[in-house]
Design a protein that fits this description.
Layout (H helix, E strand, L loop, with lengths): L8 H32 L6 H19 L3 H22 L9 H23 L15 E3 L4 E3 H23 L1 H11 L1 H6 L4 H27 L7 H14 L4 H21 L7 H12 L10
Antiparallel strand pairs: 1-2
């Protein structure tokens, strides 16, 4: 069938695979943004820069401490999440009662500072990061070759996304978090430390970005610009799924990655704008997003 359309099956399935990979990162990053916005009402424009910091943290751990990929996958989100806690305690906590614009401007400026510092030190070229030996190679599926590491990225990101959704939507801790955004005074009356909960939530959202950064390091290399190239698309994914919608971020991230991949096969000229065209259509038809709740 694909030959009738003039499209080799290898090209089609190859682009679907690349779409899944991109979708995995869209889902991970938009999930972190959704957690932060949904529970803290902060539009975290520094998310792309912190994704980059996560990748660089993995690179630093390997270069200077000899800690490989698996150790970095555990340590980098914790370290970058701790950095996020410092940001929340020293900067963001003063903006919660103000308009969203102030948080956006602060985190946008913070992103420029972080990116500028890394770019001044390392330039714009990428630093190589090796695929762990256990995940090297791939599987010959007959119609295409599927690299093991890329399969791992899809599985790991999907697992992390679903675990985050479950904790927030189906556990007592998640109910406390959601209640704290609606009525923090009432939740605090039950003896729950709401400021600490908010602080840890921001740290967790930032940690998700760092986790995605470690996953991305062997694929895209470690570059100061890797977050800047991705964050605009991720914001479009969040808007399409619905600001603050956890499930919307996951489904929309993976779906739009595949749509973008298929567009590269059937209409390559539109592949760079297809997500933004979809965003415009969704905003016209459903301003709250596909999974968002109207106020």
């Amino acid at each position: 069938m694909f030959e009738l359309l003039g499209i080799p099956p290898q090209a089609l399935f190859g682009q679907i695979m690349l779409g899944l990979i991109n979708g995995a990162f869209y889902a991970m990053l938009s999930l972190g943004l959704a957690v932060i916005f949904g529970l803290l009402n902060i539009i975290n424009f520094a998310h792309g820069a912190l994704y980059m910091v996560g990748a660089f943290t993995a690179w630093f751990l390997l270069q200077y401490l000899g800690i490989g990929y698996w150790g970095a996958l555990l340590l980098a989100p914790i370290l970058v999440g701790a950095f996020g806690v410092v940001i929340e305690r020293t900067m963001l906590r003063h903006l919660y009662k103000l308009d969203h614009l102030y948080g956006l401007l602060l985190t946008f400026g913070l992103a420029l500072v972080i990116q500028g510092l890394f770019q001044n030190k390392f330039g714009s070229s990428g630093q190589p990061y090796a695929i762990p030996s256990v995940l090297q190679g791939g599987q010959n599926l007959g119609f295409m070759f599927f690299p093991n590491y890329r399969a791992w990225v899809v599985v790991a990101s999907l697992g992390m996304c679903l675990a985050t959704w479950y904790v927030i939507e189906r556990t007592k801790l998640g109910s406390y978090l959601r209640a704290a955004t609606e009525n923090p005074t009432l939740v605090q009356a039950f003896g729950i430390n709401v400021p600490r909960m908010i602080m840890l939530t921001y740290g967790f959202g930032v940690g998700l970005a760092a986790f995605a950064g470690v996953l991305a390091a062997p694929i895209y290399q470690v570059s100061p610009l890797m977050g800047a190239d991705l964050i605009i698309v991720v914001f479009a994914v969040v808007v399409i799924g619905g600001m603050g919608s956890i499930l919307g971020s996951i489904i929309t991230g993976f779906t739009l990655g595949i749509v973008e991949g298929l567009t590269k096969v059937f209409y390559p000229e539109a592949s760079n704008i297809v997500i933004f065209v979809i965003m415009a259509i969704v905003l016209l038809l459903k301003p709250a997003g596909l999974f968002g709740r109207t106020a």
